[in-house]
Write a structure and sequence with these properties.
This protein has 463 residues and is of the alpha+beta class. 16% of the residues lie in helices and 38% in strands.
Amino acid sequence: MRFVALGFLVICTGPVAAQSVPQSREQIKLSYAPLVKAAAPAVVNIYAKRVVRRRGRATLFDDPIFNRLFGDFPFKGFSRERLENSLGSGVIVRAGGLIVTNNHVIDKAQEITVVLSDRREYAAKLVVADKRTDIAVLQVETSGKKLPFLELGDSDALEVGDLVLAVGNPFGVGQTVTSGIVSALARTSVGVSDFRSFIQTDAAINPGNSGGALLGMNGRLIGVNTAIYSRDGGSLGIGFAVPSNMVRRILDSAITGNPLVRPWLSFTGKPVTTEIASALELARPVGVLIETVRRDGPGKKAGLLPGDVIVAVGRHDVDDVQALRFRIATRPIGESVKLKVVRRGKVRTLPFNLIAPPENPPRNLTLITGRNPFSGITAGNLSPALGEELGIDDSVDGVVAVKINQRSTAARLGFRPHDIIRAINGERIERVIDLRRATSGSQPNWDVEIQRGDRTIQFEVSG
């Protein structure tokens, strides 16, 4: 039996036994210095500059009587520009200057500067930006010089109670290191990204730590610090990091130059509640209840049926839809995973092939123009591929507003990206060609039906 004393915490690395009081100064002494000395040079500060345009508006042009008399003026206000600076952290993951950080740190930045711990500065260019995981990859030109870097660890090997270090630049005071433990795994209720199964830690993480490193005791990167739970902007001991196994998928895309494409689920589901578990005679509420399965997808080919409950992907249990999506998204296309499924009280194992979502129908991106409520919308046919890019549920089809020009009629009427256009003047809109035909002529009034998330919205617009 062997014991390793860490401060006053005695960790047993053999069979469980009673803890003992440290007997010497050496047993009491504890330092992370060797680990920090090796890892900290690979953690960088990131300064992002962006030009923010804010529009002012003269109250006269907001008057409906003025608009009725004089029409729609092309100029209804003024624009101001100001330079906005943001500060975050990042981690060098390749000696050639490849850096991972949070997407929100560099979002819409016109200029990105990376500062190393030894004060060397580099201009960085964006390689991959993935809003759905809040991870971005940057590249700096080092002229052949090798930079210190961190290797990625296996975040699936983590357990609650493992010691971790957080390295970053909180509040712009300079690089700092804080210690803590993994306080929870697979946190899916933190709504800061689409794919979420966060590592929760009590290591102090503050503003400016975003994009910084969460280190395991082997010195490897096990997570990228992303968010905190806070009432006043300071750390309350609840921080969240994107697991390294998700970071690895985005990094692979940056290294290979291949587009970031995640496997196609081809089915929809919902969490198993206590009531559902009771109705299905499950021992406890766990897993994802399958609601719909697409006829042409890998779910159907795997043998999934509505009413099945997926309780595990490979060796990993899944408690809700977010955990299921995360487990599938961390695996590369071309592989096959085993889904553990409960059907009518019996456990089955189904092979699920990971394929790219198809571009069917073709998206046919089209800018709508003319005198109609949809002028300024770039619309597309919703396919599994486009739905994956936009984060839209697999069961939804039709025509989607992919982008909306800020100064357009559609923007003034309140249309939003990802709105699904369902009907115009009673005519069903199923493809972009239907939308173009419905908006080709002038109308005295426009009766519009759209789907926004789970809501159906109907309204009338005067021509």
